[in-house]
Amino acid sequence: MTADQRSLVVAAVVIPKLLYIGRHQWPSKKLIASFQRMIQNFVWHARFTEDKVEGRAWLDQQVAELPRKDGGLAIPDLKLELLAHAAVTVNAWALDADTSTLIVGDVVAGDGACSPARQLYVSPRHTPRPKQTPRITESLWTTGLSLCNAYGGVVALTDKVAMVVALGWLLQFRGPLTHCWRGCRLHLDASALSGSLWQRYTAVEATSHGLFCTEWVPYLVLSDLRLISEAGKLINPRVRFWSICSQGVQLKDIIHWSWTSPNCLIVTALGTPLTKTMQRHVGYLMQVMLLNYPQLLVPGGHHGEIRYSTKDEGHIPITRGLNSQRQFINLTEGQHAEAGLPLPLVTSHQELLG
């Protein structure tokens, strides 16, 4: 076989086999480099070995990896193939996996010591453009998760910092947000943020990013949030909110909020016992959240039917809702309602879409 034919064999046979193995046993960086040398030796010298082979390749490595239409041989880069495989796999898990799938994975991986199945999310957020190339980490999950967060997130508007600062100046001219703690509940009056500036702020973001769904905000991971202060500085949540922020904790595990009247919210702190420091951190967290996500001033629907839209004609309507515990339920199960049974919970993205 020629080098061109061997490169086709690598792309069609070798790489898929290695990706299948990598899905079940994630390789180390040393092992990836070893297999990449084997691939290079096989293509250029017809020897699948990592030892040094006499002779030279007649194309530079970067040129050889180019598509054939651009003068290359399309020799695969194993590291890039594994990175793409991790991103696609984690994205599929985030969409379709449920707690049962997670339990099976923990048992197979040998991590099934804890009886309750933890819930994992790929948290949506604003992400800056990465300044370095993607890296292989210790597992397929962490590698794919970092890729989804870095390259799959929404890029903030260039004037985002200026918009946050401008909204923060309203607190200087109109007065600060009104805080009033009653037990574990914080009564918050954000009327100072309302007005034409708030309308312009939300209109610009709606034009760039589309509809803002407030029902997904509780699932954001606090330690991963990219929050900007009223002074235009980037906030490190682990330092600024150290009393309520820990690795992997979501907003719904710390606070719960509801709307009482226009521009007024009741925030319930879920931490027990609630200290003065935690009260200060919760109060400032809500202020920063309102500056970065001013859409939170608009009451969201945390009960009843949930909105869905589709551009396809002739589709079957999807009816889903939230129960009193704010869990997704299937409203189309007529036999459960007729028998007086509780409606079934939706535990995966697949069930959510019907």
Please list the strands of the largest sheet in the order they lie side by side: 1-2-6-5
Structural class estimated from helices and strands: alpha+beta
Count the E strands: 9
Helix percentage range: 40-55%
Q: Total helix count? A: 12
Sheet with the most strands, sense and barrel status? 4 strands, antiparallel
- H and E order: HHHHHHHEEHEEHEEHEEEHH
Which regions have little confidence, pLDDT < 50, spanning 5+ residues? Answer: none
Mean pLDDT, nearest integer?
A: 82
- In terms of DSSP E residues, the strand content is 5-15%
| Rounded Rg | 26 Å
Number of domains: 4
Shape: elongated
End-to-end gap: 50 Å
Kindly describe this structure:
By secondary structure, the protein is α+β, with helices and mostly antiparallel strands. The chain folds into 4 domains: 1-76, no CATH class; 94-155, no CATH class; 160-297, no CATH class; 303-354, no CATH class. It is 40% helix and 10% strand. It is built from 12 helices and 9 strands. It has helices at 3-24, 29-45, 61-64, 78-96, 99-109, 140-151, 160-173, 196-209, 237-240, 276-292, 334-338, 349-352, and strands at 178-182, 185-189, 227-228, 234-235, 255-261, 264-269, 304-305, 320-322, 328-330. The strands form 3 sheets. Strands 1-2-6-5 form a 4-stranded antiparallel beta sheet, covered by helices on one side. A 3-stranded antiparallel beta sheet has the order 7-8-9, with no helix packed on it. Strand 8 (320-322) and strand 9 (328-330) form a beta hairpin. The longest helix has 22 residues, at 3-24.
